[in-house]
Records
---
Amino acid sequence: MLEINNLTCGYDARFSLTDINIKIKENEFLGIIGPNGSGKTTLFRAITKIIHPRNGGIFLDGIDLDEIDFKGLARKLAVVSQNFDIDMMMSVEEFVLLGRIPYRQRIQLFESKDDGKIVNEAMVLTDTLEFRKRLMGSLSGGERQLVYIARALAQKPKLLLLDEPTNQLDIAHQVKIMDLIKRLNKERNITVVIVLHDLNLASEYCDRLVLINNGRVHKIGSPCEVLTYQTIEEVYKTVVLVKENPLSKKPYVFLVSEGKGGAK
Amino acid sequence: MNKKIYTWIVWILILAIILLGVSIISLLVGSAGIPFKNIISLLFAGRGTTEYSIIFDIRLPRIILGFAVGSALALSGAILQGMFRNPLVEPYTLGISGGAALGVCLNIILGLSRKLGVLSLPVFGFIGAGLVILLLYWLTTSRGIIRLQSLLLTGVMISFISSSLVMFTMAVASAADLQGIIFWMMGSLDGSDRVLIKLMVIISFFGLVVSCLFSTELNAMSIGEEDAAHLGINVEKIKKWLFLISSLLTGCAVSVTGSIGFIGLVVPHLMRFFVGRDYRILLPASFLAGGIFLILCDTLARTVISPLELPVGVITGIIGGSLFIYLLSGKRNKYA
């Protein structure tokens, strides 16, 4: 579905990402993890064509992203970013309707009936229909994140890209958001690429993880393969304890504070 | 969704009716008051009379120009505010008017309008406005992202530099050119060339049609440039188009009537308060309201100390500035 081949890119002369190779399969739930400044968001921005490759390329369904225009890309790929600097006086419904922009013709000023139907469906799926008249500025962090996902769904994407969607949310909202994304992945066959800081959420929900460090892919594999204490210690330079979650059988990372012993 | 469109149509109708009312009042009042019932008879049988001449040769062209310039400035303000996502941005605060003024002054002192014709004035105004926008864009953009914090300050500085350069051109201008510059700088809708009026009307409507085609993009840009790109908007390309339209509108407006401030700032604000923030209605509403506002201000400028006349910029500044302070202080939380 999405293939990143020998990608090197970054800002100015400095390369933030070097020689990245990742193949994302259809219907996969892929997590991107790594320390702060490792290049996760740069990779995210490269996939969304905000920054351009210096070397290598990114291919969506076999077509080079450079050959796909912004509109064409937005019909296949939707993004849930961390940008909250939006017009807070916009209503939730108006915000979700923005997701239909990729389908609007140049001289089409008004939404079609289909747009209304699709937006409604996206809001039902994300449980946001009840506050469709509220202003974006009046929403809590969790509600706002659901609305962002609704807008992305209104784009009818095949691939959903999310940049730390659980950031600053309480555990109940984290689980609600991640369960929703998992459901969309399983029931709607949407391929998911998600940047996560929380290693345990990544372990619990992702089929595969890509661990990025210093702008390079450090390891790719299942959560069991990637989330070992040696790897985490090496990349994050901190002591952790990794055990198996008794319910999901996935790795669970425990933090170890200073003076409480080494890694086990 | 249909309800939204009906509401928008109602707003457009309300503004159109107000525009008609204000235009009729402006036709009738002035140093020579003319009763409303006389207009119809003058229209059919009044050719050659003084009243006919006052209404159709002096006041009507002035109203038409007032509408075209007011709507162009308000539209330009609405576009720039949307593009920069900053409610304080307008052609005046960004120095675009200053650039246009400098272009016109250079044209006058170089004697180009005499050689190239009166149409070279808006062309130079447009070039001046365009150069300021490009300079502003270049100075405040890094990695394709406009640094809003430095934007206004840079705009204000460019505005100061332009004013200083305008003063420089005045210092070196000949007596005849100086008179031309001062007359133009006071800002007036009086005595403009018919060709310029027609051109201004065409440019205003052209600006409205083209900018409305970008209303979806402006709506998308209200959630940030990067997120707009995620929605399939080619942000850099759109910004260039919007820059071009707003400098065309401002440059022409300023070069025809002189610097008239506050319309581009206040009118879009006021309209946002009434019709909402969707650019599909905000652009046409600002367009109509800008026209109404300038016709109204010009009528006041003609009548307040009649038979003498005030520069219209004085009235737009006083009314616009007071209105803006009121909006900022009292109503800010409702719409800003």
---
Amino acid sequence: MERYVDQELKELNKDILKMGALAEEAIYKSVEALKNQDKDMAKSVIDNDAGIDKLELTVDEKCIDLIARYQPMAKDLRFITTGMKLNSELERIADIAVDIAQRTLEIAGKPLLKPLVDIPKLAALAQSMVKMSIDAFVKGDILLAKKVLLSDSEADRLRNTIQKELIDDYMARDGSTAPRAVQLLLIARFLERICDHTTNIAEDVIYMVQAEVVRHHPEKL
Amino acid sequence: MTDKIITKNLDLWYGTFRALKNVNAGIAEHRITAVIGPSGCGKSTLLRVFNRMNDLIDGVRVTGEVLIDGADMLLPRTDLVTLRKKVGMVFQRPNPFPLSIYENIVFGERIHAGRITRDGLDEIVERSLKDVLLWDEIKDRLNEPALRLSLEQKQRLCIARLIAVRPDVLLMDEPCSTLDPQATARVEELMRELKNKYTIIIVTHNMQQAARVSDDTGFMLLGELIEFGRTEQVFTAPRDRRTEDYITGRYG
């Protein structure tokens, strides 16, 4: 039986997916800009962020409006509250893409401290985790959500490797490398934070689908 | 948590119509239990089982067990006057007697206790009206007709009339359906106060009310108790698809 609220829930779903697509695009462009030292692309990531912020507010308002007018229960309630959380996670992911773009603007055009090896790997992992987490939401796919959660340790490992290399092999040996090394350290940290946000999304998806809180309860996975 | 009321394999027939089907439930003491479900699902029938109100209807047959404090009150030897003193009921429309406020409250006591001193009755009136947070409002007009009270005050008075005889269980059948939102909120607040002393079972069509006020919720459909659990679980993560459909408005 189609209910009046169903149409509004579909609209909300559409907006959340749009938010996901914009966040995914922001990450993709920021990573491409970093890899290719492309200042124009980095600037476009920064410019596009205002649109993402605006959509975040729209989605939030829709969620609050739905709760106020329909007092949703059960699956509807879980969908709307998860939608609100996802919205906020996606906006944060897009903000981090801006952070990466700003670092790229700092280092673009200057000689690289070292060839980028692990950073592109971490960037690819972050992109794939963003995509998987949004897909898990769209399909209500618990297995995919769990895959996101399991990928996080690899993100931590890559971040640690990058950090250790930059500190031990460059900054500790030659202090003058610090300004450039710090930019790369920050980028690695940003990428790892994106992965953390995708794990939050994955946990929220699991709650939405099977009404089980796995956040802060790794033993339940 | 102790179960105040336990039903075991409870069936009820109105003639050949089976209105309750194998209901098994445990109603916890000093908690508010809400029973929800569509019209005709058997929720009011279930409520009326708990103080044998269905006995007044011709052709009703009840099987199974209903234990209150461990004793099966469906047995023929049950004293109905004592049972209804222990398990009182509040109805949809407040139904004060066409007597004074004072006489409404002491009415039950006069029946159950026989002769009692005026001081004793005064004490009961004050205690009961204080319990329903009505004392300060009407203490100076106790001899006025109860029918002059507002709808909400009448409903509170009916609750006061029940607790005057010191029951254990309060059954409430849509107690707020004729009240406006403010009066409803005040009666709900009263229910929260009262649960410290009584076990409360409320039947309501208003799901938001069930979600707001109750600790446990049972969902009934076509005479069956489909799901029974903690209210927060039933309303956020129902286990049964039929409960989910009903509380999200998909039933039908």
